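Quick note —
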Amino acid sequence: MKKTTRWIGGFFAMSMWRRVGDPAYRGGCCRPCDLARWLFPRVGTLALLFFQGLETRAAEGEIVLFDAAVTPRAAVAAQGGAKFALKDGLLQVETKGGTGFPGVLIKGAWDLSGCNSVTFELVNRDQKGELPLTVRLDNPGADAGKGCGVFVDRVKLTDKKPTACEVALPPSLPNSRTLNAKLTGMRKGPFATIGVVADLDAEQVVGVAVYLKEPKLDWKWGVKRIVAHKGTPAEVPDWMKLPADKFFPFIDVYGQFKYKDWPGKTHSDAELQAALEKEQADLAAHPGPEGWNKFGGWAVGPKLKATGHFRVEKLDGKWWFVDPEGCLYWSHGPVRVTSSSAVTPLDGREDYFTDLPKDASPFALFYTTHDALLWPYYEARNIKRTYDFSSANAFRKYGADWVAKYADMAHRRLRSWGLNTVANSSDIRICKQDRTPYCDRFELKSPDIAGSKLGWWKFKDVFHPDFRANFHKQLLARKAELDDPWCIGFFVDNEIAWGGATALAEWTLQSPAEQPAKIEMLARLKAKHGDIAKLNAAWGSAFASWEALLASQEKAPAGAKDDCAEFTTVLTEEYFKRVREEFKAVAPQKLYFGCRFAGSTDAAVRMAAKYCDVVSYNIYRHTLDAFKLPEGVDMPVLVGEFHFGALDRGLFHASLIGVANQAERGKAYAAYVASALRHPNFIGVHWHQFGDQPTTGRFDGENFQNGFVDVCDTPYPETIAGIREVGYKLYEIRRNPQP
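Predicted structure written out below.
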């Protein structure tokens, strides 16, 4: 085939080849591409290979896998419902939120065995902030789900200007396929430093894909060129070449990766004690910011009305919390303040770990300890056996009274670091000590809309008679917190999957006939349309009767869009309205923080603003400078989650927002919080989370370097420096914001 391709290349005029090889020509004229589109239907793959052959000659030492000005459209396939067009020298892609892995796959045949990197020239065509993209190279018969015959990595686009993202290609690893087959339950494994998945025969690459991983938002983006660069792959450490019988176990008794060393790694119990003594001295030297009251409010700032509970108020154009003493308060703290941050599943993975404790050992206790809020997620996945490495290390560090000593250290650390909030999902034993204000979270336990798409949980049926009653019971079970002056307020639910503007109604129509929300929707449709014939005319449908529509679980026809948008708004409003009514009936003094938007619709945000005391978002970006509420909405906003992480401390996944190293992590922290302090709507930010996730992944595989402390309860000094930098000047920055 290669000889044939070269023969065809010689057959065509050399003048055309010159133009194709000229970068200026590629950017401005599509004549070669037009020729390819004419030729491909006539001679098929031969023509495609010819034009890819032209691309490979674009520059010495390069193999061009894709060029929007040259590659024929027939070489590109949409994935996951994406739409694309080759236009203006760019492969313009549109992807929808709530879909699996939408993007594009470019087909071809390349030998990349002499290459050490690939550059993806990409464009973020949206204004939603940082765009995370996954890039993948495929072998014939590749199975990305099993990590076989693929190379996968991730890149991020921070702004709208074209970005060249270079991804290093790893050398061939002799045992990668065997090891990858055994390495499960982690978002990223030990080989993540050379790609999320690295199991590729570089001589036989037949596809290159660019896509989003389960996006919550709609996105517009583009691909200009994809170019492989010739060169020798970087050398890898010896442990990457180990056979399976030598590689396992790869986690030490402390829950750390055993084949690497790094600053702050724990090698012995004696080092744990030495770290504790060092930190005690640091805490004594940094007792906390001056000018704070016992709640962490601005004691020397303006005094407002004191109600004995937290509330919100706008003062001089900026939103604030007001603490129980009437001081202005800006909430700054970590989520999940608990010793159980590194609970990891053991099922089918016991050989990962060195010397798991015997049943008679005092460390066997940590087969049973867990994070109370997260444990239902383990149960929902039928995970039977876990180990809590972080609590085991707290036991090693603090001794028999480890629970109380860990809690005491948590409060001392927060104040010393310049933090004033124990954010949601934390250990209630720590929260209830009346030393640091806290907030918490409900996850509604109520019947679902059966046809709804699964986010963390399906959308609840607000018209179900149990919706109010169940939430009321949940509220009463937490009455002690709801009456506590140190409790700021509650989130209800988390990162709800809203879909698009019509999604909730569409999911309702795909539910069984007995679904209360569906019965309510049909009652409204009857009132609006009168008879089924009029609805059929409007929808372009052919339902024999209202009963037939009720029984149907098919997707809504295109003509139903307006009615679906209308009922989606109804469901959205009823959700926030009914939650607020029940919440305020039991806890009138407590603040309702909403549902922590990660993806949203305009209706959802506007209804949250109508019924919540504070609108909450989980926002993973470098800064909040570009954040805007919908036009006409002015509300206090609380960030429920943000974080940064790096790969220089032994974990395999940097986090949702990766940075180069720990020094950059501390800087990123300070920059993010300062940007929120400058914004008039933000009244707090909460970091996710207090302690690192487990090296080998939690219930959903997350294994982020996202803690203030590591699995051995040792603080990251660079991060703490960044927290103190902004935390000690919290109210000064809020009062006089400087860019």
